[in-house]
Amino acid sequence: MAPSSFAKDKQIIGFWGKPTSTLDWCEENYVKTVYIAEFWNTISNLIMILPPFVCALYYWHKKMEMRYVWANISLLAVGVGSWMFHMTLWYEMQLLDELPMIYGTCVFLYALHHHATPVKQKSYPYIVSLVSVSVLVTVVYLQWKNPVFHQVCYAALVVFLLYEAILALKNYPSIKPIVLASLCFYLFGFFLWNVDNVFCSNLRKMRSSSDSELVTAATQLHAWWHIFTGYGTYLHIVFSSQARLLHLKRECKITKLGNFWPYLSVGEKS
Ligand SMILES: CCCCCCCC/C=C\CCCCCCCC(=O)N[C@@H](CO)[C@H](O)/C=C/CCCCCCCCCCCCC
Ligand SMILES: [Ca+2]
Ligand SMILES: [Zn+2]
């Protein structure tokens, strides 16, 4: 599903010129500033930029295996790509948003699949399969610029990740709450993404008939999709790394930073 043909009537052209992307989401373009096409959709990406940046540095400092550092960098890459896309609405930036979603999910699959393997042991057939899927999706999507193709491929990878998560849960039932939290936030974000696409004209009417900035912000459901899926994905990284550390019998505990932000507190490497 793609929000394609809304507001063809009064398009404002801002600093980045006419949109060249194959998607233009429900948020009205260049309303807040001429430098950012979709303001709320842009700044909501901070949730995919700041926490994984800090978490990547923390895991690196704690000498976690590099795949968990890369998992954070993958989410960070999606956040930066998505920021660039919503700011410019350029086709090239859309690719910078969408393709890392595919690569990132492959990194998550790789990390989760290897949560119970001996240190430095890798499953080469699994790696080859993930690289092949990434290359295939990239090549086809560069030729066939249909966003639904990207959405179906991405959704299939997420379902496969869910299957890997269920397998990991069998080994470590204690991680169930964080797996469930990750899934609930993610699915709620997906629900909002659909509402935004289906009820775009209603949401726009609500915004145009209200002067309240609160209504404007609250009805940007694509921005809320970023926030909920970004948080759900961050929690996925927390549980994937926790499953690994439990397997390695290395000390770790989910702690809250400032009584608010959950992260995996990791003990020193023995
Ligand atoms: C299950 C819990 C954790 C899952 C982690 C999944 C791996 C995440 C990988 C990358 C992070 C992505 C975070 C969201 C970024 C969104 C950026 C964005 O908005 N991009 C759009 C352009 O602005 C792009 O065009 C959007 C595509 C949306 C595709 C939606 C596909 C639906 C996926 C639904 C999966 C349903 C799973 C059902 C399971 C029962
Ligand atoms: Ca828009
Ligand atoms: Zn987006």
How would you sum up this structure, described in words?
Its cofactor is Zn(2+). Zn(2+) binds at residues 86, 222, 226. This protein has helices at 39-43, 50-61, 66-88, 91-113, 124-143, 147-171, 176-198, 200-208, 213-218, 221-247, and strands at residues 252-257, 261-266. It has 270 residues and is mainly alpha-helical. It has one domain: Rhopdopsin 7-helix transmembrane proteins (Up-down Bundle). It has a two-stranded antiparallel ribbon with strand order 1-2. Helix 2 (50-61) runs antiparallel to helix 3 (66-88), helix 4 packs parallel to helix 6 (147-171) and helix 7 runs antiparallel to helix 10. The protein is globular, with a radius of gyration of 19 Å. The model is unreliable at 4-9 (pLDDT under 50).
Quick structural overview:
The chain crosses the membrane at residues 39-61, 68-89, 124-142, 148-166, 178-195. With 270 residues, the chain is mostly helical.
Task: List segments where confidence is low: pLDDT < 50 over at least 5 consecutive residues.
Answer: 4-9
Radius of gyration over all CA atoms, rounded: 19 Å
Task: Give the termini separation.
Answer: 50 Å
Q: Largest beta sheet, briefly?
A: 2 strands, antiparallel
Strand neighbour order, sheet with most strands: 1-2
**What ligands does this structure carry?**
ligand L2Y2AEV6, calcium ion, zinc ion
Number of helices: 10
Query: Which percent band covers the strand fraction?
Result: under 5%
